[in-house]
Amino acid sequence: xxxxxxxxxxxxxxxxxxxxxxxxxxxxxxxxxxxxxxxxxxxxxxxxxxxxxxxxxxxxxxxxxxxxxxxxxxxxxxxxxxxxxxxxxxxxxxxxxxxxxxxxxxxxxxxxxxxxxxxxxxxxxxxxxxxxxxxxxxxxxxxxxxxxxxxxxxxxxxxxxxxxxxxxxxxxxxxxxxxxxxxxxxxxxxxxxxxxxxxxxxxxxxxxxxxxxxxxxxxxxxxxxxxxxxxxxxxxxxxxxxxxxxxxxxxxxxxxxxxxxxxxxxxxxxxxxxxxxxxxxxxxxxxxxx
Length: 290
What we know:
This protein is of the alpha+beta class. The protein folds into three domains: 47 residues; 114 residues, Uridine Diphospho-n-acetylenolpyruvylglucosamine Reductase, domain 3; 110 residues, Enolase-like, domain 1 (2-Layer Sandwich), CATH 3.30.390.50. The strands form four sheets. The chain has a five-stranded antiparallel beta sheet. Strands 11-12-13-14 form a four-stranded antiparallel beta sheet. A hairpin with a 2-residue loop joins strand 12 and strand 13. Helix 5 runs antiparallel to helix 8 and helix 9 runs antiparallel to helix 10. The chain is globular and about 60 Å long. The protein starts with 5 loop residues before the first strand and ends with a helix.
């Protein structure tokens, strides 16, 4: 049985959107296909008539500076992000997250756009992008728009993107300035299950010994990718000391909604682990910013 009926490789965004509009059945974009192909083969996805290969669309394969922002195309393989000088300078949390996605062979084909569009609450790339305050660029038949990253998510595995009508083109990230830094860390099972028990990304700006700004993203802490906004408010403007760190951790634990998973860990175990992970990630980001 064929997993799809038609395969199209457009060269431009307009051609891709036209392919969606003219498809005689359900259509989906494909880049690396590391999630989609498994879902189709194992019956976890409804039948697809048309696959639209977006890896030849120039706008979706660039990683470049655009004014005072870094743009990362949705079809850029995560292995390229890991090794890219610009990403390393301005989005270190993202490069660290991408380096932990699956294994080397998968990273060579898996894309950041696919990692985000799959809409899992603990996707490594997504958690890093949230902490980095990324915005997503989306193309549709009626033009291109930019939205805050968190607006892409409706629930576990559910994206707000209009399937068959819209394309996730890429991501805009603010450039890193003096005194700003980020870090991503995660804890996973050593048996080779490539799913995080818990992951965490922090971006911050230091001013002398004070936390001028901070963003904290934790996964999985809610049905959608999530930021610890209460801890961010509490720590902003405070001196970086043990009292502030412990107060921030308490705020994370009060707001977070861990759940138990038979494949990953219990909620109680995750709460136990988050203390060390939070302090370790925060300390690394702080030292980088200093």
